[in-house]
Design a protein that fits this description.
The protein has three domains: 68 residues, no CATH class; 79 residues; 152 residues, Trna Endonuclease, Chain: A, domain 1 (3-Layer(aba) Sandwich), CATH 3.40.1350.10. It is built from 13 helices and nine strands. Helix 5 packs across helix 7. It has 336 residues and is an alpha/beta fold. It has a five-stranded mixed sheet with strand order 5-6-7-8-9, sandwiched between helices. It has a two-stranded antiparallel ribbon with strand order 1-3.
Length: 336
């Protein structure tokens, strides 16, 4: 493959444009290089600021794919269309029946796409029509397979470094706002911007670094999307109640189903917090309380809940990670 010559400063400008246009995040030089850690690229990017750099096409693609994964744009690191297709083939080749289905669905999909192109449909032809036809011919297994194939095609289009860059957000959101705090209204999401959710889902090691208010907003966002009626506290002078949660058909003037205490911390949550939440549950006449933490409950806190029979539950670090996976936006418009 050929090479790409980047003039001084242009490589970093290119990465910043991808971060802003695709992931909707505004990032500094340091932030960009930090998200390339563990690779050869931080030194290359810094050096290119002064001297420029010549990269082979495959090097540039690898750099971009890794960077876009690290900032949360895709859920899994993309390896390029050739490798992604090979991975899919290897999943099906061991079973003769599955391999036959793979071959037949692939051929039918190619034929249907060619027919779509001949009718003047936009590339890669109308996915809905192709999927419907494949399902009719091959059933549910064929539908699952063709959705996987379309996912590879669409991911390749979205991440192609050689295609025009189409902006997916109205404006950019500073990444540092996730950690320093920001009052900017979410473009997507009710309480916290989807871009922050996607970023955190790929960077769960930074949960303990996020701004405490953003963690409260993340909690409110989760219960809101689960269908509950949610009220986020003011953030200060809230008497220890960060989020109130009701069943969707309940009048918010009534006692809440649940009150949440959010603890963004690297330390274990102690029994003092548990006792305080129990008192708030009693005062609010809530059914139960819940502690959501980026860490975990201390043994003493767990013993207090159990021994005293407190109506308190906990979502610890691993549970928050599961939330983030569930809250991620779909990677394409057709794959669910």
């Amino acid at each position: 493959m050929g090479s790409i010559i980047f003039e001084p400063k242009s490589l970093l400008d290119n990465l910043a444009e991808w971060a802003g246009g695709k992931a909707g995040l505004a990032m500094s030089i340091t932030e960009i290089c930090d998200h390339l850690s563990g690779t050869q690229y931080p030194d290359i990017v810094r050096g290119a600021e002064v001297n420029g750099v010549r990269l082979r096409s495959e090097e540039y693609e690898d750099l971009l794919y890794h960077f876009m994964y690290r900032i949360g744009y895709v859920e899994e690191e993309y390896q390029g269309p050739t490798i992604e297709i090979a991975r899919q083939f290897h999943r099906y080749k061991k079973d003769p029946q599955e391999l036959s289905l793979y071959t037949n669905v692939g051929s039918a999909m190619s034929r249907l796409m060619r027919e779509g192109f001949a009718r003047g449909e936009s590339m890669p032809a109308d996915p809905t029509a192709v999927i419907k036809a494949i399902k009719h011919e091959f059933g549910a297994p064929g539908e699952k397979l063709v959705r996987e194939m379309y996912s590879i095609i669409q991911k390749g289009i979205r991440l192609s470094p050689h295609a025009p860059l189409f902006h997916e957000w109205k404006d950019t959101l500073e990444l540092k706002g996730l950690f320093d705090g920001t009052n900017k209204i979410p473009e997507k999401g009710r309480f916290i911007d989807q871009r922050y959710v996607d970023y955190l889902s790929n960077n769960t090691d930074r949960l303990g670094d996020m701004h405490w208010r953003k963690f409260e907003q993340l909690t409110a966002e989760f219960y809101n999307r689960e269908g509950y009626r949610v009220a986020l506290g003011p953030g200060s002078n809230d008497d220890g109640v960060d989020v109130r949660i009701w069943h969707p058909d309940t009048d918010p003037a009534e006692s809440p189903l649940c009150i949440a205490q959010c603890k963004r911390t690297r330390d274990k949550v102690n029994k003092v917090t548990v006792k305080g939440l129990h008192a708030d549950v009693e005062f609010e006449k809530a059914t139960y309380g819940i502690i959501i933490t980026t860490s975990e409950l201390s043994p003493g806190a767990k013993t207090t809940i159990s021994a005293r029979g407190y109506a308190i539950e906990a979502v610890e670090r691993d549970g928050v990670k599961s939330w983030l996976k569930k809250l991620r936006k779909p990677g394409t418009g057709i794959v669910r």
